[in-house]
Amino acid sequence: MKATFTIIALVFILSVTAVGSLYFLQPGPATHGFTRGHIYTVKKLNELELNFGGWYITWLGDTQFYMSNYKAVLALFSCDYNLQDTLYGKLRFADGSRRRLETLKREIIAKLNPGEDSFSSDGFVTLADATGRMVYTYYYKNRFVYLDSDLNVLRNGQLIDTNSVAKIEVGEYREGKYWARTVSAPDEYVNNRGFSDGKYLYNHAGLAGDDESFNAFNLREVLDVYRLADGQYSHSIYLPKYKNRKLIDFVVKDDLLIALYDRHLVTYQLTGKEVIK
Q1: pLDDT reading at 105 higher than 90
Q2: Cα(66)–Cα(218) distance, integer angstroms
Q3: Higher pLDDT, 24 or 41
Q4: Which of these, 250, 264, 258, 263, lies nearest to 44 by C-alpha position?
Q5: What is the DSSP letter of 187?
Q6: Which of 81-90, 223-232, 238-247 is predicted least confidently?
Q7: pTM score, two decimals?
Q8: Rounded distance, CA 203 to CA 143, Å?
Q9: CA distances, 254 to each of 220, 265, 270, 271 (Å)
């Protein structure tokens, strides 16, 4: 009997120890030096599974939107905003929108950051409106630049995080006659991708705020929204994960958000309601 009580006591102690260890080992709140303000929710509307992956969104029409493909460069897909009336087609020549953005990116880096390390100044371009205005957002630091079609700076904007300097280290790789510069220390993406409708910049954020736990942050995609008129932060959007897939691309049209997760399209209505974190 005494042996039985001893075993029960040991099992109880080990159980409590295991639970306590899991509690103390779980990720706590972030410590990135910023918090998010108004948080808006979304309401899921429709979803559509595509025949294959590799897509990206190229153009928004009045009644339909269009996508091209990284791998099948002549492939074209279109559908309406209810994810109906779908059409798979074939282009006569490869879509040039990505090449255009890469060209603009090189020109912007050369103008804004002459002589600066290319990794530190790396970022992405989003076209803001039909006039050719654009936004350049840095991957590794809390800055974006609003430019006109001649690459004149209209406004410098600062993101809400505190990463004013890119936290990367650049090294060299040599093998025989081949040489290349690479990132030698782990790079931390502050900003992943973005979209602009000419009024707002929707930035797909890579960092959790101090009032968000890592677990909660990793369960959703966070879009921080900035006004292009004054460069100030407006609000954030919490976008749920879709079947544990990463957000590949997204666009916003009025109060409709179209999200692309590899082979899946999902549409959400922006409700504008603040939620508790």
Answers
A1: yes
A2: 29
A3: 41
A4: 258
A5: -
A6: 238-247
A7: 0.82
A8: 11
A9: 22, 18, 9, 11
